[in-house]
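Tokens in:
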């Protein structure tokens, strides 16, 4: 194990990645993990504790990827580990209703009163797919409106102009998706009231749902105006369409009520993933009772899952949300403010901007920071590659793509945050070629 930034051997990661490439397409189970955007060998993490993680070679990192969002409490939080261990020891899955899923549903509905009914699934992708199906079943309409750059998981009809993974690969859309699948998907630009009004004037009565990341965080962090979200609400109400907030990344990270609580706009349905499972595979969709009751077995919209509501995953979710409720969110905001205070002055010395919403951060390599996908200066990606490499060598782990955000947790210590700032100071100077 090494604490020094210079001793950064990746022999074991390289060896494992070589084996992985013979077995898994690209050596990974999810594309951006392959480091193609930033180059070099993907780091194989072996263990983590709090704000730090250790790779297979024993290198230590202050981790800001945090499993791409789920770990609001950091790695191996004692309450989550204990919940997983005690629950797993009693049996890992039953296929019956369990106490644990009732417990998580109680927590979710207490924390977020807009969630009058909740259905658990196993991923964010599944949550969004199911919520859209509910909206279509409830309204009897087909069209779904989404926004350029927003990612909603990898359902066929939502893989259109969908942010980081595709953007990193330089593709607008995925191959393997028949045009017929996306013919009922309409893509509009973010941050543009007129585009929404114009579309709704023409075809509002065909729209089942407007689906939006209220805090778009999968194509950089494109902070939206609350008025724009209010505008979506107003158009949906007028047209009899549902408004779905995809809170897979923002839910239970930006406080109890997520982006809906922060920005308003009053969604009819919300989708969850990431933080809600405390690091285990959990997704959920939730919303108004009369809408959610179209779901089977009460209504005609079918949706099911063998491992849905899995007790071990539910117990992890209960532990995570309870810990966040009991002071966790306050700690998260304090840590986010501390990191912001340390990093922002460093960015002021360069033509870049630190963007933050709560504990979600992004580096925009332009000023002012963009609010829409089309406004992102693509040349920032090269700068990010340099920055990422320099930070990695100094023991700070960020997601390996310029279009990904990074996350602080409740577990990052003051010392780790200061160490991060010191690494950023040096890495920024290198990345900007002494422009400081
Ligand atoms: C991560 C994410 C998803 C997909 O969730 P998975 O668990 O990866 O399937 C969907 N929507 C948003 C906003 C996300 O951030």
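Residues out:
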């Amino acid at each position: 194990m090494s604490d020094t930034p210079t001793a950064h051997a990746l022999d074991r990661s390289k060896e494992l990645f070589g084996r992985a490439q013979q077995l898994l397409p690209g050596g990974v189970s999810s594309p951006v993990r392959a480091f193609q955007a930033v180059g070099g060998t993907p780091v194989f993490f072996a263990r983590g504790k709090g704000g730090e993680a250790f790779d297979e070679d024993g290198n230590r990192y202050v981790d800001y990827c945090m499993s791409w969002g789920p770990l609001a409490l950091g790695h191996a939080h004692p309450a989550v580990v204990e919940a997983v261990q005690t629950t797993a020891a009693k049996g890992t899955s039953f296929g019956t209703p369990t106490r644990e899923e009732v417990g998580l549903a109680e927590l979710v509905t207490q924390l977020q009163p807009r969630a009058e009914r909740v259905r658990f699934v196993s991923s964010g992708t599944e949550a969004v797919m199911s919520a859209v199906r509910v909206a279509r079943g409830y309204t009897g309409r087909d069209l779904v409106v989404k926004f350029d750059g927003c990612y909603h998981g990898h359902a066929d009809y939502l893989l259109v102009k969908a942010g980081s993974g595709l953007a990193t690969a330089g593709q607008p859309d995925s191959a393997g998706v028949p045009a017929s699948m996306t013919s009922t998907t309409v893509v509009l630009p973010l941050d543009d009231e007129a585009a929404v009004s114009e579309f709704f004037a023409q075809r509002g009565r065909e729209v089942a749902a407007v689906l939006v990341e209220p805090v778009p965080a999968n194509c950089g962090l494109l902070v939206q105006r609350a008025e724009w979200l209010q505008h979506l609400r107003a158009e949906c109400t007028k047209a009899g369409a549902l408004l779905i907030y995809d809170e897979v990344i923002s839910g239970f990270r930006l406080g109890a009520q997520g982006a809906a609580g922060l920005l308003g706009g009053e969604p009819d349905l919300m989708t969850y993933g990431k933080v809600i499972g405390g690091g285990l595979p959990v997704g959920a969709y939730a919303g108004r009772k009369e809408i959610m009751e179209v779901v089977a077995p009460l209504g005609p919209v079918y949706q099911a899952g063998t491992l849905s509501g899995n007790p071990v995953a539910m117990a992890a979710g209960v532990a995570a949300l309870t810990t966040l409720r009991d002071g966790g969110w306050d700690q998260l905001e304090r840590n986010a403010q501390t990191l912001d205070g340390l990093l922002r002055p460093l960015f002021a010395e360069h033509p870049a901007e630190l963007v933050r919403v709560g504990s979600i951060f992004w580096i925009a390599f332009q000023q002012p920071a963009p609010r829409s996908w089309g406004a992102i200066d693509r040349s920032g990606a090269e700068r990010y590659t340099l920055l990422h490499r320099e930070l990695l060598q100094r023991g700070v782990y960020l997601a390996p793509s310029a279009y990904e955000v990074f996350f602080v947790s409740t577990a990052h210590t003051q010392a780790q945050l200061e160490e991060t700032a010191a690494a950023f100071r040096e890495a920024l100077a290198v990345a900007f070629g002494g422009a400081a």
